[in-house]
Fold this sequence. Notes:
This protein is an alpha/beta fold and 416 residues long. 35% of the residues lie in helices and 24% in strands. It has helices spanning 2-23, 48-63, 72-82, 117-125, 150-160, 170-174, 179-184, 215-228, 254-264, 268-273, 301-312, 342-345, 360-368, 385-394, and strands at residues 95-98, 108-112, 130-133, 164-167, 190-199, 206-212, 235-242, 245-252, 275-278, 283-300, 318-320, 330-340, 352-357, 372-375, 402-405. The strands form 3 sheets. A 6-stranded mixed β-sheet has the order 5-10-12-13-14-11. A hairpin with a 2-residue loop joins β7 (235-242) and β8 (245-252). The longest helix has 22 residues, at 2-23. The N and C termini lie far apart (65 Å).
Amino acid sequence: MLIGCKKVSWRLVTLIHRRFNRISQPSFHPPFPPPPPSFPRQRTSTPLHLLFSSSVTRSLSHSAPLTGLMDLKEVLEVLEQLAPLSLAESWDNVGLLVEPSKPHPIKTILLTNDLTEPVMEEAEAMSCDLIISYHPPLFRPIKRLVQRDWKQRLAVRAVEGGMAVFSPHTSWDSVKGGVNDWLVAGLGSGQVSVLSQALGSPPHSHKLEFTIRNTEELKTIMEELKTADSRTVLQHSVLSSDSGGVHVSVTCCDSALTPTVQTLLRHPGPSQSLSILQTQKPPLPGHGQGRLSVLDQPVTMTTAVERMKSHLGLSHLRLALGVGKSPESSVCTVAVCAGSGASVLNGVGADLYITGEMSHHEVLDAVARGTSVILSDHSNSERGFLSVFRERLAVRLPDSVTVALSKADRDPLEVV
């Protein structure tokens, strides 16, 4: 038994050492920074490098159990670390979309941009346990599961095959080091900024300010507030104290606002001086939709097209030259948004837009402003990121889990 324990311990140390080395040498970007499920309080001043270190440590300590197996919940925790679902757009349908009724170890994961019937056949052939589909195959509300609708057929097949289905979609677009950072890197290095800034959720969304007579009354009020809602943690601070009384600030979340106000209004001081402020959501630096890059080395439009063909693995792209521009015009600034990016790119000042698709009139508007446009078709602007994500996911999972890229996944449109 002692010999066996030594072998297991040595294997575990070797596995962690190998993974740490792979994490420390990324290909084009560092692994996703520590994800912020909720934005830290402004009083917190933990350095970013310490947050990153603790994130890596958590990932390693949870990703290689002695059994070498992981269940669905553990894999979902890793996915959340890489790109928190809170970064997704409010209209999106992200996360776990299909969950098997019988829990079982995750041995095979298939990455795909779209879950289509050919991809499902591929998943069934490899006895897949989890399909990660960038685009959510289930988006609109479903009232029935029947064979007439192809997406409903896929959901039924996933359930019958015991396969879970997960979709990250716009959380991958938004996260720092995600799809849009990968896309803009195709033109080379530059000073990159976010076009549509992601916002965090403050720990407390309301601030209540009021005046009381003395600190003894404050103690009484705080005890009453705790009794009124024992589940909520309230924070208070004394703003100032003068002849007019003690000026106090209390912060609380949405659910605690009503009982907090009701309690305060029972006291004469707060009832006459109470003011309620709503705190703003803090920005999450580096996270958000779309990217703008000021290139370190400007390129010609011809070079930009060739670089993006190589980056996306395509033989053809569609190009609309801005008014007054030629194939030899210089590109100094580029704005990108994976997928259908017109709503994010609209009005952004740049020499070049890169996205998957835009409508005819949206292209005309950009061209009229002197901005050239490169279109790759929708999923072609996203699919290449899957291979990058595969590496980032694989190093966080035990060797018993196979992470595969779909060979059947492709954009429905092709040049003929």
